[in-house]
Design brief:
42% of the residues lie in helices and 18% in strands. The protein has 363 residues and is of the alpha/beta class. The chain folds into 2 domains: 122 residues, Leucine Dehydrogenase, chain A, domain 1 (Rossmann fold, 3-Layer(aba) Sandwich); 199 residues, Rossmann fold. A hairpin with a 4-residue loop joins strand 2 and strand 3.
Length: 363
């Protein structure tokens, strides 16, 4: 177990490290407060069997520390499984910073956060996530080397994430609809941030019928004016008739209210933790809706970042080919799920756990 090295930390900090009984599969969780910069952050390391824990830094105005902790724990476990199925030598972790990303970002805050990462001596590597940017990664890099996605090593991984989701949608459409083309397929995209917009641009090129929603009216206007999309209310996009529902905003969008309202044959999008609870995967399966497990389909960013971690170009042909294989991985999951009468989410978990177990055995 790696411990925080106080030699890397400012003196005026409060650190709380804990194991949580309800999340006994996590290696460690740290809560970190630095009053001088206003930083309040959590880092969760789930599993480092395959390598150091990599996971993005999310900045969000959480309702409470408990909500932030729950997010960090679920996301870090998802990163472990994502890395396992992506075939990269990394474990799973996640960081969250409690604060408004629109008003509370400062260089000192990210410098302090970088010092916390540096104190973990390589156990955790951070990257961009919701609410953070390449500029923020550059600030973090001024106090730690354990960061990627900076302006010097590939920058924003969103285009590669969008590429993987695009390949995943193609695989899901082939499996569920029996079509090798996306022309005329209706895709309802929830969220037009970096990934959602890039995904829509790819889909529009293929002649996909796009329905879009976002809380940012300018993002919706771009999709309508430039990509020929149809706009829908953000709180209704999940319920519109479509072939594919693509959640590309925040997580927990598939819950007791939205799952029964779905009118799509496929759920395949980039958002992390799309299922409010694990049982919603089985509910989608019972309804005959094909679900592309989020940590499989959205692994493109991780794959590109993993290449940067080992000093390779995150956008070269090797990384590109690895991201394009996401469709093949999903096809394997869909086929096995159908053959065994299980949900794709259950099969994906099994495959990830199997790979980690083989590594522990040295196989």
């Amino acid at each position: 177990m790696s411990k925080l090295s106080n030699t890397h930390l400012p003196q005026d900090v409060t650190i709380k490290a804990q194991r949580l009984a309800e999340f006994s599969d996590h290696q460690q969780v740290w809560e970190y407060r630095h009053p001088a910069s206003g930083l309040h952050a959590l880092i969760a390391v789930h599993d480092t069997t395959l390598g150091p824990a990599l996971g993005g830094c999310r900045m969000w105005a959480y309702e409470s520390t408990a909500h932030a902790l729950s997010d960090a724990l679920r996301l870090s476990r998802g990163m472990t499984y994502k890395a396992a199925l992506a075939g990269v030598a990394l474990g799973g972790g996640k960081a969250v910073i409690l604060g408004d990303p629109k008003t509370q970002k400062t260089a000192p805050l990210f410098h302090a956060f970088g010092a916390m990462i540096e104190a973990l001596d390589g156990l955790y590597i951070t990257a961009e996530d919701v609410g953070t940017s390449v500029r923020d990664m550059d600030w973090i890099a001024e106090t730690t080397a354990h960061v990627t996605g900076t302006s010097r090593d590939g920058g924003d991984p969103s285009p590669m994430t969008a590429l993987g989701v695009y390949e995943g949608i193609r695989a899901a459409v082939r499996h569920r609809l029996g079509s090798t083309e996306l022309s005329g397929v209706t895709v309802a995209v929830q969220g037009l941030g970096h990934v959602g917009r890039a995904l829509c641009e790819r889909l529009a090129t293929d002649g996909t019928d796009l329905i879009v929603a976002d809380v940012n009216p300018d993002a919706v206007k771009f999709a309508v004016d430039e990509l020929g999309a149809t706009a829908e209310r953000a709180d209704r996009i999940h319920a519109v008739p479509a072939d594919v529902f693509a959640p590309c905003a925040l997580g927990a969008v598939l819950d007791d209210e939205t799952v029964p309202a779905l009118r799509s044959a496929i759920v395949a999008g980039s958002a992390n933790n799309q299922l409010a609870q694990d049982r919603h995967d089985e509910e989608l399966h019972r309804r005959g809706i094909l679900y592309a497990p989020d940590y499989v389909i959205n692994a493109g960013g991780l794959i590109s970042v993993a290449h940067a971690v080992v000093g390779e170009d995150a956008s070269d042909s090797k990384a590109w080919s690895a991201v394009c294989r996401i469709g093949a991985v999903l096809s394997e999951i869909f086929d096995r799920a159908e053959a065994e009468g299980q949900s794709p989410g259950a099969i994906a978990d099994q495959l990830a756990i199997e790979r980690i177990a083989r590594h522990r055995r040295g196989a």
